[in-house]
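Posted in: Structural Biology > Protein-Ligand Complexes

Title: Requesting predicted complex, NDP in pocket

I'd be grateful if someone could produce the 3D structure tokens for the following input. Sequence and ligand are given below.
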Amino acid sequence: MTTLKIQRPADGTLIEEIPAHDAAHVAVVAERLRDAQREWEQIGPKGRLVWIKRYRKWLLDNADHLVEIAMEEGGRVRNEPTLETTLLQEIIDYYIRVAPRLLAPKSVRGSSPLTFGKRYTVHRSPFPLVGVIGGWNFPLLLTIGDALPALVAGAAVALKPSEVNPRAVVEAVRGWREDIGAPPVLDVLLGAGDVGAALVDAADFVQFTGSVATGRRVAVRAAESLTPVSLELGGKDPLIVLEGANIARAANCAVYGGFANNGQVCMGFERVYVQHSVYDEFVDRVVAKVKSLRSGVDDRSDVGALTHPPQLDIVDRHVREAVDKGARVLTGGNRIDRAGTWFEPTVLVDVDHSMAVMREETFGPVLPIVRVADADEAVRLANDSEFGLSASVFAANTGEGERIAERLEAGAVSIDDFVANMVCADVPQGGWKSSGVGSRLSETGLLKFTHTKVVASHWMPLPANDIFWFPYTPARRRLFAAAARLIHGRGPSRLGL
Ligand code: NDP
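-- Reply #1 --
Done. Output follows.
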């Protein structure tokens, strides 16, 4: 039997070895979930929200426990998984507020004269089984956070957390099933990519968060069965700092956005472009702050270990290659010599876009900073990337920041801030270019888990035969042509002139 060896990234020791599932088990779980889903859909949004509210309380009561598990298996400091459990509450509150309205049938008045006498209603039906596949950097948010709107929509959900750190997700699913005794419409599948692939085959909708390479594989596989997908993929997010900005705040923000969760944030700053006139002050402040960051996993630490061991080699390779090509390390730059997966918080300057550290996702504690002449050069370089997840701008005033935001190719732009969009469940979060297809949160984050069904009815008594139906005659064709001119023509062309 295949097993998953779950390790403590902080020291490399084994937490536990857990049995992995196989493709046959995925099919069994999918079948069970589909069975349970029928009743779940029938109880309607009101009935489902009763359980979601109970689960909200369970998540609140058990937040510390979940955080402890996520810290241990992720090598993370307490604040990071705490952010996850907090954002889960935001997501629940938002969908409790909007779901009854969004999921209710909607009457639509047709705008064309052709719709006279008709009555249109748009209904929402859930995809019966949603497969949620998540990455390891925010294991709870990227699985439970997407499962919640899918459940609210009336779907059953199979979660496939990363094999690296699935234990917090297992516990969160246990809470749903055992502690609150909710209907068995949520389950978890344990395993690596083969289990994820089997889930893509089994699901009616796939919600995926992970790397661009795996996202492509998922999209190709799902295309075989025309299964819809929503893909939240990697990023290489830029921060732009311009003359007149609040440089103290910009520097603190750069360090937070670059090193939060040890740089393992899809929307983390991975490139910084600073106007030459404020460059020296900005860099001095950033370096001083980064030097003060404490690596460790106790409650006085700022930066933890790298969650996924292979990430250490990627981070190391990006830094080494940049240095070989002429970059300078202002602080950090090396692995930390202790058991576990540790790398020093690192600041690089004299970097350019020929270097992997400026083009590929580093996903670690490295902040490369580039000196630019002006806003135009900053925008050009920020957009020179295959990614387009989010970005931040610090400018002389919010008006200038907002004008620059319009020119950036990204799914979200924060002005004078880092991922300010993330605390607002009312707005969509999705990437441009290779950073994704579709989005999560907001109304779309719920409605994407549903099909629409339009019922076209009528309020007017209908004749035995319709004018559009057979027989086709020249007289009717002339009548239709004249009616079309009358409806769609403007000015004299209405009369055929
Ligand atoms: P991966 O792409 O390696 O894995 C993501 C998930 O897909 C894991 O559960 C993985 O399983 C699973 N998987 C692997 N192969 C397949 C397959 N063939 N079919 C289906 N599923 C498969 O990503 P990471 O776990 O490394 O996560 C980090 C990435 O996620 C970064 O690129 C980051 O930017 C991105 N991300 C994007 C976010 C966004 O909102 N845009 C948010 C957070 C992260 P296993 O791990 O067991 O191999």
